Amino acid sequence: MGRTRNEKIQDVLNVLFFVIVTLGFIYPFWYLLALSFNSAADTMANSIVFLPNSFTLANYEAVFNNDSLLNAYLITILRTVIGTAFSVMATGMFAYGMSKKYLVFHTFFFTLTMITMFFHGGLIPTVLLIKSMGLMNNFMVYIIPALVNVVFMLIMRTYYLTLSPALEESAKIDGYNDLQIFFKIVLPSSLPIIAAIALFNGVAQWNSW
Asked: What's the rounded mean pLDDT across residues 160-166?
């Protein structure tokens, strides 16, 4: 059965709409690309619309001749890789502890953790805390303060609660302690949630400048 005239018109309008929306998303990136190839003097004098008015590679030469660029990217990459790995591990272990109601002072620790979601000490106390920990001008200032994310902890804790208790019970019968159960039973069974949290954490670390 052939399509009606109204259906064909609707299809054309839908395609036009999504093409316009797509171009709207792409244009800012294209504008920045064109801007990067345009001379600084021409950029100050004119407004680039689609293509560089005065093509030049001087902007890229200035950037790549900057000796601090390589060091900056090295710190960014190390922060992303090391920070993500340490944070996922610390958050995962904390979430595992919070998933066990028999943990000593479980309610206290869980309540204290929830409070941090709604109240923050502020910028000045945070700086004073970092200074007192000896993290000023130290690479570990990127790692230690961001070790545990409460939201990620709650997500991982919820996932741990869905795992069958029989897995841990059988492991305890075999003589496993809590650390062995976490690393040999829980972690291998939680790879999907770990991958998701690692992705979220990696993006957050990379975007933190």
From this structure: 89
